[in-house]
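no rush on this but wanted to send it before i forget. what follows is a protein written twice so to speak, once as letters and once as structure tokens for the fold. mainly i need to know what kind of three dimensional shape the backbone takes. thanks a lot i owe you, the record is right below.
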Amino acid sequence: MTTLLGLDVGGRLVVFAGGGSVTERRVARFAAEGAVIRIVAPELTPALSSLAESGEIEWRDRAVRQSDLEGAWFVHSATGDARTDRAVADWAAAARIFCVNASRGDHGSARMTAESRAGDLVVGVVSNHGADPRRARTASAMLAETLAEGRMPARRQRRGAPGRVVLVGGGPGAADLLTIRGRRALAEADVVVADRLGPRSVLGELDPEVEIIDVGKTPGHHVVPQDEINRIIVEHALAGKVVVRLKGGDPFVFGRGGEEVAACIAAGVPVDVVPGISSAISVPAAAGIPVTHRGTSTAMHLVNGHDAPNAATLASLRDDSTTSVLLMGVERLPGFVAAALADGAPTDRPAAIVENGSTDAQRTTRATLGTLVRAARDNGVRSPAVIIVGDVAAAGLLTSSAVREDARTG
């Protein structure tokens, strides 16, 4: 039977018999771990020759001898000659040194694992007695992919490493629009501090031991103030935990992610940001509305709907070639529209509101700027919603069976 072990070869001598392509591939793995490498072979591949010339490896330019194994912690034989490889393995066995016989997987005292990496985890798979290395490589790659995509819990079980915070942009709401990097961060989390928006369905997939803290905000009703959210994520990280701050859209697009990063930096907490697909672009796209379109719109103006429109926003609403996108704007839509019309924005400017974008509850209300408030009221529009004002919002600009839309015209 074969037992998998994680060998620490850093600073220890590893001897390779043979200087061909097999040795070239495997030397890289040992070199990356800091091994002291000796190659014994009459010839080397160009890549190995370059390493020898630079002094990164020791090269003994001749056929391998038993004395070449002296002081070695590990031996790898791939000379291309089965008799020589067997002799090297026998010399290693006599000296009680583990040895890989590359010409025959069932001979020798060690096997090379099919190795993949996912973050700080190393996934090694080996077939028993080296019987089927291709099968081992396939299994290793599949396991690494599962870990990398966050489809397998990867929480640290031993404490001691410092805590950290990861701000994850969850995208517009659909779980499959969360990035692979975001899913991997969630798989490693000890604590998840979650917003109301974003892909909340993924929370049910987490390890039962993961603590989930709901800090969801609704319009005009912030149960957990931002300062308290900052305190929560910092406090848990200082306790040595991996904290994921799961946010809707992208953390830095009206998500107050900058404030949370600043709070972590001020407390000396390591923090990373995983970008998310912004609702400003993805939600209109889900409804078949491109925020820019050749011959129709050459610019996009992104607006925080909580604020009264400033001069730049008013100018964008008057500009035929600009698309204005409002996030978090449902509650103050009447005042926003009134200001735009008073400033000269055309009443017949196409407009649309997309609610619950990318989810099964997605709904689109189409109108014009002049009729948008009434259409929103009549259709009972509620947040979360993205408001698009511009010629790209006109019905019929794009047609596709792949676009889900419940079109209503005010």
Remarks:
- The two ends are 73 Å apart (CA to CA).
- The mean pLDDT is 87.
- The longest helix spans residues 133-148.
